[in-house]
Amino acid sequence: MKVTWDDFLSALGDSEESSSFRLLVSGIGEHPVMSETPKEYNDPLGETRFYKFIESGIEIGFRQGRLNHIHLFLDAIDGYAAYRGPLVEGVSEGQPMPSLIETLGSPTSSGGGTNSPLLGYRPKWVRYDLHGYAMRFAFAKDDRLSQVSLIGQ
């Protein structure tokens, strides 16, 4: 994998045809599995087109023709291998939540760490709203960083 953290950020909000997205896909170096949300879901936010980079632990979603989100799975999950590429400076795979907050400061919002009758355990998470995008960090039950999401705004 030959991507930088800035490659992820540069592609957020861009189209599938953009040079920044093509550069990102090229840097990941894996042919993605493509899928879309079924129309019968009637998603009020619109259909999502997914690029699933299974061996790289990355899922990218497009809504309304723009790159909406990037999920980096730091633990192998749902058939994805664990992501082992670059993260935002000061953050590392498996980092405990208190250490991440000490590094990045107070989050904009946080939640999780509860059981839902319908969804089961909901992992703890913290979110940082930044200039034009958000970073969301999810943690395993043992408080280790397990997923990083970049979300366009």
pLDDT below 50 for ≥5 consecutive residues: which ranges? none
Would you tell me the structural class of the helices and strands? alpha+beta
* Oligomeric category: single chain
CATH architecture of the largest domain: 2-Layer Sandwich
Number of strands: 10
What is the share of helical residues? 10-25%
Description:
By secondary structure, the chain is α+β, with helices and mostly antiparallel strands. The protein has two domains: 1-86, Beta-lactamase Inhibitory Protein, Chain:B, domain 1, CATH 3.30.1450; 90-153, Beta-lactamase Inhibitory Protein, Chain:B, domain 1 (2-Layer Sandwich). Helices cover 16% and strands 35% of the residues. The protein is built from three helices and ten strands, in the order ααββββαββββββ. It has helices at residues 5-11, 19-28, 97-104; strands at residues 33-36, 48-53, 58-63, 66-73, 109-111, 114-116, 120-122, 124-129, 133-139, 145-152. The strands form two sheets. It has an eight-stranded antiparallel beta sheet, covered by helices on one side. A two-stranded antiparallel sheet has the order 6-7. Helix 1 (5-11) runs antiparallel to helix 2. The radius of gyration is 15 Å and the shape is globular. The two termini are 27 Å apart. The model has no long low-confidence stretch (mean pLDDT 93).
